[in-house]
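Reposting from the mailing list since nobody answered there.

I have sequence plus structure tokens for a pair of proteins and want to know whether others read the tokens the same way I do. The first protein:
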Amino acid sequence: MTDAPTPADRLTDAEREAVLARDRVTDTLAVLQHRLDPRKVARQTARDVGDRGSALAEASLDTARRNPGALAGVAAGLGAFVIGRPILRFFRHRREARRIARFQVSPPAPNQGPDQ
């Protein structure tokens, strides 16, 4: 005689497995909802960005202390980029004004001959 499960036993086992599976899914959803809470994600992201930002600032300061010449070069390049356009405009305007003045016809000089 074999102990084969009856259809009623198989149904009961299947229902028990379904309940356990449903409980596991519910637990998983609860964990995901807790992890993916928008406020929690925003706080964690802000904390991570702050940590990385401060680490980047410290590394930048250390590099600047070790290489002051490079820092001066970067500062000069940024200064030239910011101030360069107005300076170029100034010289371009002067050059253009000289070119225009060179081609302008001056008014005729008044006659200073014996006729007057």
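The second protein, same order (residues first, tokens after):
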Amino acid sequence: MRTLDPQSLTQHVDRLYRAAWALCGSREDAEDLVQETFTRVLARPRVLSGEHELYYLMRVLRNTFLTSRRTASRRPVTVATLEDVLVADPRSLGQPEQALEMQEVYTTIATLPEDRRLALVAVDVLGLSYREAARALRVREATITTRLFRARKQVARELADAPEARQPQTQAAPREETRTTGVLPSRGTP
């Protein structure tokens, strides 16, 4: 048993942020989630029982996310006004295509069912091994493998369908006039 060192938390900020972004689907919510997670962890000394810090932080992040979703579901839904809309994130101005792709990926991950999303975040975003993810999520390793397979397949399918939806509709080539009989002319006849 050892005490969690508050100074060591800084090494995990980026990984937890990526995991939070994948869970929430938006940067702003991810920043809030990571901040709330660290607030809870730093509120009192934490004793780890043989766990790696990242497992523990992932579990706290997940529990904080679930708590915030439960709390939000009890609140009335409000509609955003034009004054609430923020200016584009200046960090993405250097590489807008990459920023757009990352936003699409994280938004797609956020739409996954919770069990698949948590497995995908643990392994592909946080970089945990299958065994580590299974321990952190308290499921069997085979369950992680199945959930990952299904989550990756669903994300790939949705991302593959997304470009088709974004492509502008091309106008169809004009059809040849039909003869009085209503039949299209064949290639050989004028």
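Reply #1 (J.P.):
I read it the same way you do. Residues 79-90, 168-186 have pLDDT under 50 and may be disordered.
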